[in-house]
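Is iron/sulfur cluster placement plausible here? Inputs below.
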Amino acid sequence: MEALLEEVQRVGYVNKPVASDVDLIAEINRLKREKNAVILAHYYVDGDIQDLADYIGDSLGLSQQAASTEADMIVFCGVHFMGETAKILSPHKKVVIPDLNAGCSLADSAPADKFAAFKAQYPGHLVLSYINCSAEIKALSDIIVTSSNALKIVESLPRDQKIIFAPDANLGRFVMNKTGRDMVLWDGACIVHIDISLEKLQRLQVENPDAEFIAHPECQEHILSQADYVGSTTALLKYVVDSPNQTFIVGTEAGILHKMRQAVPHKKIIPAPASQNNTCACSECPYMKMNTLEKLYNCMLYEQPEIFVPEDVRVKAEASVIRMLEMSK
Ligand code: 13P
Ligand code: SF4
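Reply from A.M.:
I modeled the complex. Tokens:
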């Protein structure tokens, strides 16, 4: 066991080859039953993992599930800050993630020491942090928000309340534009959403004149200004289902297309083009894609890598996350 833990610390996941005759899906389902585990998956992980999950959702939905689950073990197929949020909300449960290396450019953009110094420059400001941040940043924040509830939470605050918004400057600017309020922004960004190419998008719109363009608020302002609708991943999914339109260009991580195509197989769903020359010519989060069936199987079998949050940090972070959950009701 000690050697296994050392290996997990070194490479970030259980690096044991799985025999080719193992039926991964059947085995993961067996482990889920035997260990009373729940699999939570974000819409951005691969479709084969989404299809196995007990709950698939956006960041808000997933944290609500993590707070209310009866399971003994939470297996979080997403990125590191999501596993941390689950541990913050369910400290007595075991929380595991398939790969510790699954980070997030937004969370990485805000190191706790630099953020504490930034915050100290703005006395009297309320700190609203997007859930895509580390437990330490959550502990330095007053209220956590997600892309589902950021507008609602900001609008519920007194108009003269000064606000710091971190770490996503694009979401912050979107909220400022929508609410007409000023906020002090931390300059973080999602590497996936800021990579959507306006030039390629406009070409796609010419080729698909009937398509509605819908986008996630982590996109840059010049992309959002083209959008017929802006919302969180869950909101985008709902929009595609509810809209009478038949063709959509979707400006977010391409993993969401899996659920969209399952929900409305007769509609045409086109991923918004990334500027990079990547293999799928769409937007893929390299961190979310670190979740694989093999790593998920090993993670459930060995119950590693496990997420820990120091108790003093957890208690402070919990207060800001709970405030969000209360304000989202
Ligand atoms: P939501 O889950 O709030 O839509 O955010 C998307 C995202 O980038 C998660 O990392
Ligand atoms: Fe972070 Fe962007 Fe990946 Fe979401 S899509 S986990 S915000 S890097």
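Short version: The first strand starts at residue 37 and ends at 42.
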